[in-house]
Amino acid sequence: VSDVFHRTKMVSCKSSELAKDCIARFKEHGISQMPVVNADDSLYGIIAEYDLLNAVIGGSANLNKPIDPFVVRKVDTVDLETPIQKVQELLKMDKVPVVVDQKKVLGVITKIDLLEFFVNRGVNG
After folding, report:
1. N or C: which end of the chain has fewer CB within 10 A?
2. How many Cα atoms within 13 Å fall on the side-chain side of residue 84?
3. Rounded distance, CA 44 to CA 29, Å?
4. What DSSP string runs through 45-95?
5. Please, what sign has the CA dihedral across residues 61, 31, 123, 77?
């Protein structure tokens, strides 16, 4: 994972944040999912724009209420020593691997991160 994961400023939110603020953060950073963290930056869950969109369309989300009901709590985590094959397996199942180090969330690995890794290694090229 350490070869694929790019340490940049982690974009995250808290479960108490309003849905509209979370949506603004998705847009501001050009992302579609982000970790939801506790006060100590430990993992609480993950929120995806897809889940919020479905909740809004379905009428179950109020944009002026906290995102907590829409946070997915069952999250797959990896650490910096996790083999890249494990990340590939998770991404194939449309899961978002959250990178943690000693219970502190560092960020997520996306499909584009993995593609960039293979391009830089010259795989199939």
Report:
1. C
2. 10
3. 21
4. EEEEHHHHHHHHHHT---TTSBSGGG-B----EE-TTS-HHHHHHHHHTT-
5. negative
